[in-house]
Amino acid sequence: MTESAYTDRSFDAMPGRGLTARWVLTATLRLKTAAHFGGQGDSALDMPILRCAKTDRPLLPGTSLGGALRAYLLDCLAEYGYRRDGSPNNRDDANSKDRRDVANVFGGARGDDEGSQSPLIVFDALGTLPPASVRTEVRDGVMIETATGIAADHKKFDFEVLPPGTTFDIRFDVLVPDDANEGELLSLLCGSLEGLENGDIRVGLRRSRGLGEVACENWTARRCALSTPEGWLEWIGSDHMPKPDLSSQLSIRDAIQSAMPSGVSLHDQPDKRQRIILEADAAILGDLLIRSPNAQADGPDVMHLSSGGRPILSGTSLTGVMRAQALRITQLVQGLSRPDAERLWITPLFGPREERTRNPGFQPRGSRLRVSERPVANGRSQRVTRVAIDRFTQGVVPTALFDEQPYVGGTVHLRFELRNPRDGEIGLLLLVLKDLLTGQLPIGGTSSVGRGVLVGRRMTMTGSGIREPIEVNFDAAEARRGRVPVSSELNKLVQQFMPSAPAATKLEGART
Predict the structure, then answer these.
(1) Residues spanned by CATH 3.30.70 within the chain?
(2) Residues in Cβ contact with 159 at an 8 Å cutoff, skipping those fewer than 6 apart
(3) In contact, 211 and 35? CB cutoff 8 Å
């Protein structure tokens, strides 16, 4: 091979990628609810969090954050990854423009042999626990049998979570190739990062059950023009994680636009997501006890679950009772057997419960119903002592004295999001919420002695196809009697769930 072949730029076995600019985006990501990023190691816990091997600080992998951003952008451009029947939606069609747009930012998808490297670099981030917390939290998980309503044998586990208020300094680098449309590339990325601002992106484990809700603030954006030596030196000399200063912005769009070169602007991305959002304000009638272990020697044996120093109503507990009630309603109204009811209605809505150990060909998929984890306020903790009574002698069982610390009174704001709703599913969800908000569906432990009863105050429904929010105001006395005044729009949605309901059937009078 001649010397001229080596000096000829047209001959290059590994051609470089010409770059116009390099963007550096930073922000502070803050956990609004507890989160779990799975790790491994020698731990007494079944599921510890991921930690940095050098500093032992919590670690948010760039792969987890980048995957969540990619999925959110694809949801907005090509709807959620479910068909209306609840089965997965194949959005990776090779001819899909939406898929190509996403690949322009996040690179080729899995199995795409023709895909290219992503111009976006997502860095790992180290976490900082909130000042009020000196350690992470541990939660108990248990599988509840639908038929009996009690814990299944050998299905208890514990997992470690980061408390609300934990912060991560996150950084993204964007490489702008010579042949790329910089405005289009940054607009797509901005549309994805805005999901972190509006709370639509959750990270980590059990995202559909309220964990991993985040917020972002203190956005900074810097553009280094790589067409000049000064631009290269600016990027090389920059700090890995610049500290937020007076130039930081509350919005990622404002931060990028302020650093955008003249003549280039951002444009909005379409949002094709189909979803219904239900929010409700409720009061706790009596007390509430979602059991949580207590590590203090002088503390109660069982206390109500708290996170970040605040009592909470967990999404897992709420979803468990709602799933069981939805199954009972479906069997009653639709006249279906339990296997058919689960296959046709419950599994597409709440997700499957089948295990891979029972069926090796089982393909898991996420729930289309997102239940948020919410704090409980305006109440108080109260420690009570209980004993076990022998049912034969009616005397106290020896060594059966124990203390409980439930949360008494208070209010809670509930939020539910149903993605890609199909006909009848909104009506089924409304019937379940009607039972929940009228005290007929208690939550948490020891519900047989009157705990966990909620009474609704107000419920609103917004989302796709709803021009004006639909609002229901509860009268406390009527709600305790199981009667809820509703609009004709909600009754129509319930009628869609009824197979052949009489015309006089109303949500107000429906009993489960």
Answers:
(1) 275-355+367-497
(2) 36, 45, 46, 47, 48, 138, 139, 141, 205
(3) yes
The CATH code for residues 275-355+367-497 is: 3.30.70
In contact, 423 and 434? CB cutoff 8 Å: no
| Cross-strand partners of 461 | 278, 470
Q: Is the dihedral of CA 117, 118, 121, 124 positive or negative?
A: negative
Tell me if residue 321 falls in helix, strand or coil.
helix
Q: What region does 447 belong to: left with phi over 0, alpha with psi -120 to 50, or beta?
A: alpha
Cα dihedral 463/468/469/471 (nearest 10): -140
CA distance 323 to 327: 6
Q: List the structure tokens of 259.
A: 């650093």
How many Cβ atoms sit within 10 Å of the Cβ of residue 25?
23
For β-strands 396-405 and 302-304, DSSP reports them as: parallel
Which run of H or E residues covers position 26?
strand 19-31
Per-residue pLDDT of the chain (512 residues; tens, 9 = 90+): 454 444 454 545 545 667 888 999 999 999 999 999 886 665 677 788 888 888 889 999 999 999 999 999 988 888 776 544 445 555 554 447 778 888 888 887 666 666 678 889 999 999 999 987 668 888 877 666 666 656 666 667 788 889 999 999 999 999 988 888 888 999 999 999 999 988 899 998 888 899 999 999 889 898 888 888 888 888 787 776 655 554 667 789 998 888 888 878 888 888 888 999 999 999 999 899 998 877 677 778 888 999 988 999 999 899 989 999 999 999 999 988 888 998 899 998 998 875 544 566 666 677 899 999 999 999 999 888 888 888 888 888 887 788 888 999 999 999 999 999 988 999 999 999 999 998 899 998 888 888 999 999 899 999 888 888 988 888 766 666 666 667 788 888 899 998 854 443 344 444 33
